[in-house]
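Async update (no meeting this week)

Hi team, since we skipped the sync, here's where things stand on the single-chain job. The sequence we agreed to prioritize is pasted below, unchanged from the tracker. I ran it this morning and attached the output directly underneath so nobody has to dig for it. Comments welcome in thread, and please keep replies under the output.
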Amino acid sequence: QAVHAIWDDRLGSKTFIDYLWHNAEQLGELMRGEQQAALLLFPEGRSDIADAVYRHTITARYLNTLIADVILAELAQQDTPLNVLEIGAGTGATTERVRELLHDVYGESPPINWLFSDVSRFFLVNAQQRYGHLAWLSTALIDIDRPLTEQGVAAKSQHLLVMAGVLNNAQNSEQTIRWLAEVLMP
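Output:
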């Protein structure tokens, strides 16, 4: 209650604090595997809580803008379109910030090929609805626990990989990193 009383909305919405509190209340169930973390983040299939966490906190806004700035800097040095694979794109928070900054600089036709991927079709359907009109963005179902080259990503085809909070979900991080390296251009 004290945190709620002094919370500054510039840090994010109070929904974020409510989410943290609800997780704390469910900690025992979460640790015993009786409660799924995803159901706390996406109750009843809604994305308002996930958006509060991944889009609207000050940290998320900062990190997503930083990623977008790196991509803009890379684009400024490229003579050809930049191939970017976003793995575990989820709610599209990073994608959205990149899209906004690309539009500010390049309008509707930025020199980029962005592959929005996730292990869940739920996120891909949402991305297709939100970004289907963008010729430079496509979607793919990708599981980081399988070789990317067996999932339609060509070896040495990507300039950049974008991942936020993904590697911690890998069953074998070292193997996943090797698979990721296979799709990066030299």
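Quick observations from my side:
The radius of gyration is 18 Å.
The first strand starts at residue 82 and ends at 87.
Reply here if anything looks off.
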